[in-house]
Amino acid sequence: MNKKLLCAALLGGLCVAQAASAQEFDDRWYVAGSTGVNFQDKDRDTEDTIFGTVGFGKFLNPNWSVDFELNYQNPDKTANPNLWWSQYGASVDARYHFRNADRKWWPYIRMGLGWQRHEEEFVRNPALGPNPAQHSDNNVAANLGAGLQFDFGRVDLRTEIGTRVDFDDVQARPAQQQEDYFTDLLASVGLTVALGPEAAAAPPPAPAPSCADSDSDGDGVNDCDDKCPGSQAGQTIGPDGCPVPVSIDLKGVNFDFDKSVLRPDAVAILNEAIEILKRYPDLRVEVAGHTDSKGTDAYNQKLSERRAKAVYDYLTSNGIDAGRLVGPVGYGESRPIAPNTNEDGSDNPEGRARNRRTELNVQN
Questions:
Q1: How many CB atoms are closer than 10 A to CB 234?
Q2: How high is the pLDDT of residue 238?
Q3: Which Pfam families does this chain map to (predicted)?
């Protein structure tokens, strides 16, 4: 028996083994075909020959594939090439692929079982009948090999070396020359072609809902940043989602002595107040006017009302709904924010100028 060849095939399979893993694989059925050289076991008394295979198979997972394969070879007899000898068979083979996810080629090992039939002509003793005589037999065969597979998409290339142990224990030869089995070495190159359309790529998973994209209480602050969830409509909300007190500063909306006409410098401040009121459409404010202490109480009361009315009219004429305004209300000289006189009783012009003012007092 050609035991050296069997050992070589076994060692070849072991040498290509390497630790690897694969993340994806093509699970379509494929058709396969190969051709190569069948180095015949010399104990057969046959010459090396070309062989061919056809089959089909598929990957069961990233590492294991299974093939059903038909093979055929027709070597010459060594002693007499004119005598006919042929062999064909079928096998089921499993291949373990040492795949790496980011490589387009990988080694594999092959193992399988099958059925082989050989048919031959031989010369016998003429006393036993005419020549050439014919002999045929069926027997089990085992496959073992190793190879490299190259991924080109739908088409893969295989290069393989292996051995087939043919358990043929009845040959057309004398009894004392009978063998129990034969070991052939096979070297081949082949292709696999995937069948059917390529599987569509799975859509990327939908992103998990993020608190940055949610505003459960509708206050304009996302749930990630909202430290006060559950705020109520109409509340003024700060950047942290919590209600904040709102005061509209009208410092600078002051009036000349004994006047209720808005000064040019006051208009710019009122325009800022209008922007705040538009930004918070649920806000309600009181429009209040004030005076200094010069003049009688009755006169100052009327003057404060005229000043409040001047601001009120400016707000409503610039798009602020009157329903959001309380007043206009005059407080006369009753609510000073600065002293009208100094400690020695002398006049304090700066303090009186600050008291000649209007205010927007938040009501909600």
A1: 12
A2: 64
A3: OMP_b-brl, OmpA
